[in-house]
TrEMBL record:
The keyword Amino-acid biosynthesis does not apply. Keywords: Signal. SMART domains: Autotransporter. This is Autotransporter domain-containing protein. InterPro entries: Autotransporte_beta, Autotransporte_beta_dom_sf, Autotransporter_pectin_lyase_C, Autotrns_rpt, OM_autotransptr_brl_dom, Pectin_lyase_fold/virulence. Residues 504-780 form the Autotransporter domain. PROSITE patterns: AUTOTRANSPORTER (PS51208). SUPFAM superfamilies: Autotransporter (SSF103515), Pectin lyase-like (SSF51126). GO terms for cellular component: outer membrane. The keyword Transcription does not apply.
């Protein structure tokens, strides 16, 4: 039938053709049978009206076919860029669609495949009798439905939105979450959801067939699956179940994951498979309505929170408070053939002793155990051990105190000492409650903060500061002598001509005063952290000749501050001193002796601050520093310079009363204690005298080596005010060996008045101190 031809078939008799090539118009009102091939070209129009029950051997449609009567294609039908509208029924042994096919009635095909095109199911049911495997990459739309028959496999790879539903009665249908439209799925054969990207399957599912998830993507089942009683195999990727699928029996293969907070039937997790129960916030769980079987090599993964459930569990005589977590509820038997239990704790959550999680419960009992437990709890806690226990029908994780001593976290002897004192304390003690849940780094900070070592280190600062009272007395005694570089009164008379009787002005009574200021530091040793300190004050005295001696007395006030940043502690002491001294000369020899007593009034502040505990502590207590000293020198007059080698010795004893800190749980009680140190110093003094504009100036210097004998490291016994054994802490050490250097200048303003200034440096291996003194003397 050529392009301009018109063929109309009327009547009731059948028309038979060997083949039909149509470029024009064919209208059939009676049955047509074509034993050969039918080609409806691009310009062709074929209309099969109501009574035209037609049968073709094969059909290639490039034009327009509209049928109102059943059409059977015995071999193959190819839809090639044409248009097919079926208003009744179309059946074909094999269909290949390359273009749009609107279908409004029954659409029966044999094996189906296609590389493109579009099928519109306008309320029709497309029955596919798939006898050979095929893939359709086109799209399917409309309100119709699909019935997959035949034992072969058909795969939909396009994005379809037909709404009538999908029924699988035989063979296998492979699809993605975007290929099955929006209608319900009846699976009585095999449905495979194969995809490598995540997706959501919102269709309701029913039937007794097989549901398979393959590919690396994760699929969330959000439709109603309560009527599906078949089996589910997860071969790859993940399947998320958050709904009520009580009859969904699931097998999880190696590399696959079942997750969610829904209800499923029987679950079997094979080696390499994972059961991830719960929600992202760690407060949910999966319910298994039948049995759970975890194979060797499988993994069960859960999350824990820090929120209390209000319930408790008794284990070995102790009560454990349970926290909210993901969990698995099994209404049958939980068979554990090994496998790994993996517990992840919510970020920022810190578990305490006697807390735990209920991870699995089984109504009919738990058989077997996990053979591996993986959790960050094993490394995050030093003194608590996460323990998996199997009690009755439950699998619980309990946080239990282990055998590790608190002292193991200490990085100094003091920290270790306070750690050992904490070990016997009960769990109800707030310090223990805080310490138990720490890791090693946090616990080390806690012990450092708790030990109160500054109380001991402050003793070192006070022992060292005794030098300023002692040095003020000795310096005054050196200045009271009628020797060159000493008082200079005789020299002054000779130089300025005011006096020529040769007498030393210092044979009269004198009043003097010296002010000082210094700062220094003692470095950290293996017992205590470093301490910085500063001192300031004044010493004043009066002296006069008595029976060949020059005898005097002194009084002084000083303020000593000390600070240890590492232990967040600081304090100060106000010091009031009284003393006496005397000096006597035999030719070039000079003997100087003296002693003093200082009342120390200490005030201390400690800040205890570590994870789980914060406290501010204060204390005030008194002490006393007693010292006695002697200095022996021999002067060489090397005009205009004098040199005096000397040796001196001093014994200093510091006593402090006991103290009780005010504050919270970390408050300490300290015992009264004494610390005694002997100092010996060997060195030389050098001085000279010269005039500047008629004023005698005396430059002077001292260099010496000082050694400390006795207990150079102060020790103190303390205990916690809330109750504990005593523990001993040590302070920073008094430097054993120190180089002492003094450089000064005195000016004789008149026979009765002189002033001076001196730099003092003290340098040891682990300590240093630098200071300045200024003095004035009035002679009567």
């Amino acid at each position: 039938n050529v392009t301009s031809g018109v063929m109309t078939l009327n009547g009731t008799s059948n028309s038979h053709f060997g083949s039909l090539l149509n470029y024009g118009t064919v209208t059939a009102n009676a049955p047509i049978a074509v034993s050969g091939d039918v080609l409806n070209a691009q310009s062709g129009v074929i209309t099969l009206n109501k009574n035209a029950l037609s049968s073709f051997n094969s059909l290639v449609n490039q034009g327009t076919i509209t049928t109102y009567a059943p059409l059977t294609v015995n071999n193959s039908y190819v839809q090639d860029a044409g248009s097919l509208t079926v208003n009744t029924a179309l059946s074909s042994a094999r269909v290949r669609s390359l273009a749009a096919v609107p279908v409004e009635a029954a659409f029966k095909t044999g094996s189906f495949s296609g590389g493109g095109g579009k099928i519109i199911l306008n309320g029709a049911v497309w029955q596919i009798n798939q006898m050979a495997d095929g893939v359709y990459a086109g799209t399917i739309t409309g309100s119709g439905s699909i019935s997959k028959n035949g034992n072969a496999t058909l795969e939909f790879t396009g994005k379809n939105n037909y709404s009538g539903g999908t029924t699988i009665t035989a063979g296998t249908l492979i699809a993605s979450t975007q290929s099955l439209g929006t209608g319900a799925i009846i699976d009585n054969a095999t449905l495979v959801i194969a995809q490598d990207v995540d997706g959501v399957l919102s269709n309701a599912i029913s039937g007794e067939g097989v549901f398979i998830k393959s590919g690396t993507g994760t699929v969330a089942l959000q439709g109603d699956g309560s009527a599906f009683s078949g089996t589910t195999n997860i071969l790859g990727g993940g399947l998320v179940v958050n709904g009520q699928l009580d009859n969904l029996n699931i097998t999880v293969d190696s590399g696959a994951v079942i997750s969610g907070s829904g209800t499923v039937g029987e679950v079997e997790v094979k080696a390499g498979g994972t059961l991830l129960s719960g929600s992202s916030d760690g407060n949910g769980g999966m319910t298994v309505s039948d049995d759970l079987h975890v194979h060797q090599g499988a993994t069960v993964s859960l999350k824990g929170t820090g929120f209390s459930t209000g319930s408790s569990v008794a284990y070995e005589g102790r009560s454990y408070q349970m926290l909210a977590s993901d969990r698995i509820t099994v209404n049958g038997v939980a068979q554990l053939d090994g496998g790994t239990l993996n517990l992840t704790i919510q970020e920022g959550v810190r578990l305490k002793n006697l807390e735990g999680y209920n991870l699995l419960s089984a109504v009919s009992g738990v058989e077997g155990k996990f053979d591996n437990f993986v959790t960050s709890l094993k490394t995050d806690y030093m003194f608590l051990s996460p323990t998996i226990v199997y009690v009755a029908n439950n699998v619980d994780l309990l946080m239990r105190r282990n055998e590790t001593s608190f002292a193991a976290a200490g990085d100094t002897q003091n920290a270790q000492a306070v750690g050992r004192a904490l070990d016997p304390l009960p769990e109800t003690n707030s310090i223990i409650y805080a310490m138990e849940s720490l890791n090693k780094q946090e616990a080390a900070k806690g012990l450092k903060s708790l030990n109160g070592e500054l109380h001991a280190s402050a003793r070192t600062a006070l022992l060292q500061d005794s030098y300023f009272v002692r040095d003020a007395a000795i310096s005054r005694m050196v200045g009271a002598e009628c020797k060159q570089g000493g008082d200079t009164a005789m020299q002054t008379a000779k130089l300025n001509g005011q006096r020529t009787d040769g007498k030393c002005v210092t044979e009269s009574a004198s009043l003097w005063m010296l002010g000082y200021g210094s700062f220094g530091a003692n470095a950290q040793a293996n017992n205590a952290y470093g301490m910085s300190h500063s001192s300031s004050g004044f010493v004043m005295g009066a002296d006069t000749p008595v029976l060949g001696w020059h005898v005097g007395g002194l009084v002084g006030y000083g303020h000593t501050s000390f600070n240890s940043k590492e232990v967040s502690s600081n304090g100060h002491s106000n010091n009031i001193s009284l003393g006496a001294y005397a000096v006597r000369n035999w030719n070039n020899w000079a003997l100087r002796v003296g002693g003093s007593y200082t009342w120390n009034m200490l005030s201390m502040t400690r800040n205890v601050n570590f994870v789980g505990l914060s406290d501010r502590l204060n204390s005030r207590y008194n002490g006393g520093t007693a010292q006695a000293f002697g200095d022996l020198g021999y002067q060489f007059n090397l005009n205009p310079v004098f040199v005096e080698p000397f040796a001196d010795i001093a014994y200093v004893n510091l006593h402090t009363n006991g103290f009780a800190e005010r504050g919270g749980a970390a408050a300490l009680v300290g015992r009264k204690t004494d610390t005694g140190v002997t100092y010996s110093t060997f060195g030389a003094r050098i001085a000279s005298t010269f005039l500047v504009r008629g004023i005698p100036l005396v430059p002077n210097a001292t260099a010496g080596y000082r050694h400390a004998f006795g207990l150079a490291t102060p020790r103190l016994h303390e205990s916690f005010a809330s109750g504990s054994n005593d523990f001993e802490v040590s302070g920073v050490s008094v430097a054993r060996d120190v180089a002492v250097a003094k450089i000064g200048l005195r000016a004789k303003l008149s026979d009765l008045l002189d002033v001076g200034v001196t730099y003092i440096g003290q340098y040891g291996r682990r300590s240093e101190d630098s200071g300045v003194t200024g003095n004035i003397k009035i002679t009567f």
